Amino acid sequence: MTPAVIRSTGLWTPENSISNAELVASYNAYVERFNAEHASEIEAGDVEPLAPSSVEFIEKASGIKSRFVVDKDGVLDVERMVPNIPARENDNISVLAEIGVKACKDALERAGKTAADVDGVIVAASNMQRGYPAMAIEIQDALGIEGFGFDMNVACSSATFGIQAAADQIAAGHARAILVVNPEICSGHLNWRDRDSHFIFGDVATAILLEREDLGHGGWKILGTKLKTKFSNNIRNNFGFLNRAERQTGDNKPLQNGAPKDDKLFVQEGRKVFKEVVPMVSDMIRGHMDELELEADDMRRVWLHQANINMNLMIAKKVFGRDAGGEDAPTILDEYANTSSAGSIIAFHKHSDDLKSGDRGVICSFGAGYSAGTVFVEKLPA
Asked: How confident is the model over 265-282, as a mean pLDDT?
């Protein structure tokens, strides 16, 4: 067996960005209108008034300062507060495939490779645009790749799960190279009228090119991968094809505050998630380090899932045994917000070129499920 290496990564970023100030202005305008329209019910105690948000609240809670989105106007429109992403005809490339292709082309260019060098595509993301045909097969077709493609969803951990799946297939001789693609339009599953979560997500697409080690130079040797899942209801999204059956039978509940029912969008118990996920991920990383016989001093950098700056700082501290951040555990949260499966890959993409041959680190994701994945890597000579 010939092991796989991470040869390169690719990134596509939307043109439009929403600052916290812009988001708060839109949300607070909605709050003011809602409270005015329901003034009598609020006074009678039948309806809870909505509380306004603030830039300070968002930054303290998350570390997020802005987020990229595919449609800015639809999100900020107080009458809508949902991205406007028109449906496309079936003979046009779908939205997720389009942005995934752009990220793949970036990864291929950075590695000096072409579609002819690739045998497979895995789309690993938290939300798929449709059930079938697989988004991966559409991306495969758009790039002109001969071989195979399939989709997989492990929420925010999808990228690390996809990396292990690709590496295993390459090592088994099933492919020379595989593109793992993470197209995330998180703005589409976010309730922009919920004060506790409306600021969390952004849109982006990333790609990771894994290749048989003997077919090129440079990149990152994979020292080891590990995956873990544990069921929890604390991060959930109940939207799916059976929702149509609910509508047909009349079993679905009415809209809440003018927005779709909360559990058909992203919903979480943030404090419970923090309390349970931080020790789970910290122990997983440290345990994997022990298996690989790595000490904290052997670790140059950790590229963590970008969900919350406070979570990342605490996990990094447990990994390094000291206060860590900045160069040790780079963040892209302030600019990109939470981009689900793509977050750790963006951090790796933007903050790995400066490392030298032999430097080691870990790409780590964690999220709904609960799910978590670790990919320990070592920089190869160019």
From this structure: 90
